[in-house]
Every structure is written in C-alpha cells, then in structure tokens.
Amino acid sequence: MIADGVEDEEKWLSAGIAGLQQNAFYMHRALDSNNLRDALKYSAQMLSELRTSRLSPHKYYELYMRAFDELRKLEMFFKEETRRGCSIIDLYELVQHAGNILPRLYLLCTVGSVYIKSKEAPAKDVLKDLVEMCRGIQHPVRGLFLRSYLAQVSRDKLPDIGSEYEGDADTVVDAVEFVLQNFTEMNKLWVRMQHQGPAREKEKREKERSELRDLVGKNLHVLSQIEGIDLDMYKDTVLPRVLEQVVNCKDELAQYYLMDCIIQVFPDEYHLQTLDVLLGAFPQLQPTVDIKTVLSRLMERLSNYAASSADVLPEFLQVEAFSKLNNAIGKVIEAQPDMPILGVITLYSSLLTFTLHVHPDRLDYADQVLGACVRKLSGKGKLEDNKATKQIVALLSAPLEKYNDIVTALKLSNYPRVMEYLDSETNKVMATVIIQSIMKNKTRISTADRVEALFELIKGLIKDLDGTFDDEVDEDDFKEEQNSVARLIQMFYNDDTEEMFKIICTVRKHILAGGPKRLPFTVPPLVFSSLKLVRQLQGQEENPFGEEESTTPKKIFQLLNQTLETLSNIPAPELALQLYLQCAEAANDCDLEPVAYEFFTQAYILYEEEISDSRAQVTAIHLIIGTLQRMHVFGVENRDTLTHKATGYSAKLLKKPDQCRAVYACSHLFWVDDQDNMKDGERVLLCLKRALRIANAAQQMSNAARGSTGSVTLFVEILNKYLYFFEKGNPQVTVAAIQSLIELITTEMQSDSSTPDPAADALFASTLRYIEFQKQKGGAVGEKYEPIKV
C-alpha cells in the first residue's frame, strides 16, 4: 500500500517535471526572441505545475527548485527589458493578468525584485504589497514555498542601514516589519499543516512538517542579519513579536524549533539583556515541548559567551543572570509536573555549568544549584534511570573539572547529598572520578575534617552501601577500585603531627568498617602513613610538657597494633606478618624495645598458628630472619629468645633444602658487622654445621628415594657462607673447615651417584674463581686466602 503511494508520487513528480520542462523550453524560445507576452504566457503555464497537491513536501521541493532556476532566468530577462525601455510599473501590472493565483504571485515576486532594484518605488511599498498579496495562497505547502521564494528574492533588497535601498522614506523598521509579517504568515501555514488530512496520517504529517521547518526558520536568520536591529529594537519589537507568535501557535514542534532558532541565531549579548522576556516565554509553552534541551542550549551559549572574555562578566552580574535562570528553571519545572527526572537533572546540570563559568568564585551559587537538585530528587529513592544517573555524574563532575581541586568541592554542603541518590554501581563510578581528579591534580588533603568529608563522598568504594558484599562483583574491577583507595590514602598529609594523627584515626575508622575483603588493600597504606609519622616523631617519645593529648610514637604503635589485629583476624596472616615486622623495625629505630618485642611476638604467633602453607612459611621465616638481623634495640635476653625461636622454626620447615637455607641464614643473627656485642663466632659455626648436616641428610634421602645423591647446590651455598664469615674475621671459621668443604663438594661432583647440575657446577666454579681472585689481591686479604687450595 505504501509502496503504491510512493510509485504514484514518483509518477506525479515525473509528470510535473516534464510539464515544467516543456513550458520552460517555450519560455526560453520566447525569451530568446524578446517576445514578452509569450514569455509570460509560458512562464505562467510552467508555474502552474506548482499548483499540485499530490506531492509530499520532499518531492514538491524538487519541483520547486527546478521552477526556481527558471525564474532566475526570467528575472534576468525582466532586468534586460527595463534597460531596453520597458516600464517596470507596466510589467508589474502586466504579470497580474496571469489566470491562476499561484503563477501570478510567483511572477509578481520576480518582477517585484526587479522593481525594488530599479528604485522607481520605495522598497517598503513593494515589499508590503508583495507580502500582503501572498495571503492569496492558503494551502500550507504551496504557501510556504511561495513565501520562501519571496524571502529569497527580497533578502538582499531590504531597506537596512547602509543598504542602497535605505532611502529617505524607508527605515529599518519597514524591513523588520516585512520579515516579521512573512514569518508570522509562514508559521501559521506551517502549523496548519498538522490539521490537513486524516488523523491516522498524523505521524507522517509531523515528519513532513519537520522537513519544512527550515523554510520558517530562515526568516529568523534573515532578521538576525539585519544590521539596523540594535538592542533596543530587538528588545522592544523583534523578540516580543517573535515570542508572541511562538507562544500563540500552541504547537509542540513549532515551539521547540522556533525557540531553539531564536537562541541560535541572535547574538549572545542580546540574549543576556533580554533574559527576562526570553525566559518568561518558557513556562507558557506546551507541556510536551522539550524545554530542557532548549534551556540547556541557552545556558551553554551564555556559558561560552562568559568564557570568551573576562570583559563581559560584569554584564552577567548587572542583569543578575544566575537568579533569573534559577527562577526560570523552577517555574518551568512547576509548569511541567510530568517532566521526567532526567529533564530536571539536565536543567540543573546546565545551570551549574553556567554558574561555574560565570561565577567561579561564588561557591554559594553552585551549592544552591545542588541544593535545588536535592529538593527535586527527595522522595524519589535511588535513581533507576541510566540516563538520569549519568547526568548526575556529569553534574557532580563539573565542579571537579572546573576547580581541579577536590578541596573546593568538599566545601559544597549539598555535594554528598546529591550522591546519595545514585545507585551503588554509579556511586562507585563517581567515587572513582573523584579519586582520579585528586591523583591527576596531586591534591593534598591536609585536615581530618576534609578527609571525613571526602570519605563520605567515596563511601561507595570503602564499604558496601547495602550492607552486604556482592559476590558477583568482578574481581579485577574490585582490585582496581581498592588500589585506587590505597593510592588516595597516600595523598593525606599534614606537617603538623597532631593533625596528621587525627587524619590517621579518621582513615582508620572508615577503612575498618569496609569489611574483610577490603582490608588487605586499605590497611597497608594506613600502616605506612602511620610509620611515616613515626619517623617524623623519632626522638620525641615523651612530650616535654607532659601533655597526655600529644601524639607520640608509642601512641601510634598502639593504634597500629589494634589495626593489625583486625587484619590477622580476616585472616590475611602473610600480609599481617609483613606489617608486624615493618612496625617492629620502626619501633627499633625509635628505641622502643617493649613495643618492638610485642610486634615480633605477634608475628611469631601468626607464623605458628596461621601460616601452614610450606612456601608461605619459607617466605615468612626469611622475612623474620632479615628483620631480626637489623634489630639493635633488644637486650641479650629478648634477642636470645627471638633468635632461638627463629632458628627453631628454620629447622622445622617441611623440605630439607628449605630447612638448610633457613638455618644457614640464621647464622647472620649471631654476627652483625657494626655491633661488636653481636658477634658470636661459635654460634655462627653451629648454624653452618647444622646446615651442613641437613644438606647431607637431604642427599641421603635423595639417594634412598631416587638412587642418586642429587645436586651439590646446598654445599656450594654453605661454602659461600663460610667464605663470607671467614672474610669478616670470624675466628671459628678456619681454613681447614673451608678446605674440607671444597674437597667434599669436589668428591660429590665426581661421584657416579650425583645428578649432573650445570647451575651448581657454574656456582662452584664461580666460587673457586673468587677465592683465586682474593689470593691475587695480595696484602692481608691475599695472605688470608693463600692457605686455601683449590
């Protein structure tokens, strides 16, 4: 059915074009022979093709454009005729004898154009005559194209200031009156289109009307190009007349399009000076008009105008633009109670952008906008409309982008209240945007109050908003979110130790409420921030004034102990153990022996009770040995206790090679270079001998199980330890012991039962080269190594 209609329309268009071309051919022949009567006759017949009602606006436009091209040639002929002496007035009357009104008016407009150009009559009189005559066509499509033609041929002949047609009698008022009258009539025709034809084709007609809108809007563009329209004329005549037509037409499509046209074609400074009038029209529009988009575009234009130059900002203050826009938005929302929440948020988002551009120093204005948004959202619960939540993210991102400083945004009291209306997923997105802004701008958050306010904003990342952890959360996304929180904690800093301690307490309060899954990510940065503060306070263990309130390393360590207890309860024993050892090392640097001992005790308890995986045990024992080796704060008794425990743990590891390596690592606990009271050669030797026994046992086990003694790597590693302590001057490590170990390794490597191991061979060869190198050094070192035979 639709296909048949399209085919029929194509046939009618083809017939129309054929008729038009045929008459155009005869018209050209008449023009070539200067036969005026035949030219008028055939041109009228040619234009009669435009009388059709069968074509859609799109097809009618094709026909019109062909006729328009022919009329340009006819106009050139009329100009030639007047030069040859033909009276333009006679010509003007002659064309009015055409039989049908539509061809008559097209010819009249064409001759009228030449008439104005000849200046034989005032332009305003001819224009007035033409615009009145065109009322003879009341068919919407034919009337619109006729008046569009009139606008086209007259646009360069308006009596504008500086125009050659200005004259004594003509003023810019006449030009404005002509364009406004043409605009008014065209708009009436355009609106009337919706009532033509059956109701079932309403959607099709609306589409056709949408295609014709530029014909109407062109008049407003012409108005904006008239040089003589100053601000006063625009304010007193042009804008009120245009708005009157817009409001009175009561048509959704026309109102939306024409309001948008007004905003786009007229200058920004005119909009600013006539805000009252322009904004007053919005509540009078039809409830179905998409006012939010039009108002948003107006605010966007004004924002760009404000951003273009600092010189225009006083104008905004003078006309109180913010309060007028704010009031207008309120009225529009009241006038449209069914406006979706997306529309409301979009309006306030545009107003906030406008405020940030025009009044960046007025935080109260920005807060006012957010407050108005909160009032409109109240009672709605969490937003479920995706577009609305995205718009809120845009609204909340605007202050961050403008100020590049979260500290400024934190001063906006309504900022967190708007965030409460976001669902948990979007809340996380917004929290991530805030953290990214802080990281990008390297913003330091330096007071506990600001940290508190910031955590209120990003609570979507630091705790489960609905009280339960969602098992469906993507693990990688979760890790990325928590890592961003960890990076954020590093941005909290204040040189004042008291304030920094308050910041740490605030952070601790929030992250401990985050649930067990988050603690492994958020506790470490808190611990290291606290240890950083401890380093600042080193040497200030007791406050000279004896104030209980003052921050001391001891107080911070107490806080850390409580914090790490929660981590070990998750459980995350490996991480907790590492952090306990870090704290012990810091306590060591502050000469707090009881505190350091307590941290070590907690680390040992974790090792014994929580860490059962053999690999984790190996890592943990080496961390314990490494940390303990650097401790200088312990007295003999405490150190012996901890050292004894460490060596005991080492000997109890599951795999023999792990046992061996841990035991020979323990030898370093009894020999610390820069501390004479911690050089016990006998116990070093005991550790090394014990490591040898374990290495030997490992070989025997390998031989029993696999029939080969396995690699000699452990023996070579122990040989390196012997050489280390020999070089450091341990009297218990003798040349004889080293020599016998070298011989043992050589024998094992030559044995048939040993397993070939290129890595062990290379390590042994490298060790022997080292001994040779030391020998060649000469002096005391050379003498020392000389007895060793390799």
Automatic annotation (TrEMBL):
<dbReference type="InterPro" id="IPR016024">
    <property type="entry name" value="ARM-type_fold"/>
</dbReference>
<dbReference type="GO" id="GO:0010008">
    <property type="term" value="C:endosome membrane"/>
</dbReference>
<comment type="function">
    <text>Plays a role in vesicular protein sorting.</text>
</comment>
<keyword id="KW-0333">Golgi apparatus</keyword>
<dbReference type="GO" id="GO:0030906">
    <property type="term" value="C:retromer, cargo-selective complex"/>
</dbReference>
<comment type="similarity">
    <text>Belongs to the VPS35 family.</text>
</comment>
<dbReference type="GO" id="GO:0042147">
    <property type="term" value="P:retrograde transport, endosome to Golgi"/>
</dbReference>
<keyword id="KW-0472">Membrane</keyword>
<dbReference type="InterPro" id="IPR042491">
    <property type="entry name" value="Vps35_C"/>
</dbReference>
<keyword id="KW-0653">Protein transport</keyword>
<dbReference type="InterPro" id="IPR005378">
    <property type="entry name" value="Vps35"/>
</dbReference>
<keyword id="KW-0963">Cytoplasm</keyword>
<dbReference type="GO" id="GO:0005770">
    <property type="term" value="C:late endosome"/>
</dbReference>
<protein>
    <recommendedName>
        <fullName>Vacuolar protein sorting-associated protein 35</fullName>
    </recommendedName>
</protein>
<keyword id="KW-0813">Transport</keyword>
<keyword id="KW-0967">Endosome</keyword>
<dbReference type="Pfam" id="PF03635">
    <property type="entry name" value="Vps35"/>
</dbReference>
<dbReference type="GO" id="GO:0005794">
    <property type="term" value="C:Golgi apparatus"/>
</dbReference>
<dbReference type="GO" id="GO:0005829">
    <property type="term" value="C:cytosol"/>
</dbReference>
<dbReference type="GO" id="GO:0006886">
    <property type="term" value="P:intracellular protein transport"/>
</dbReference>
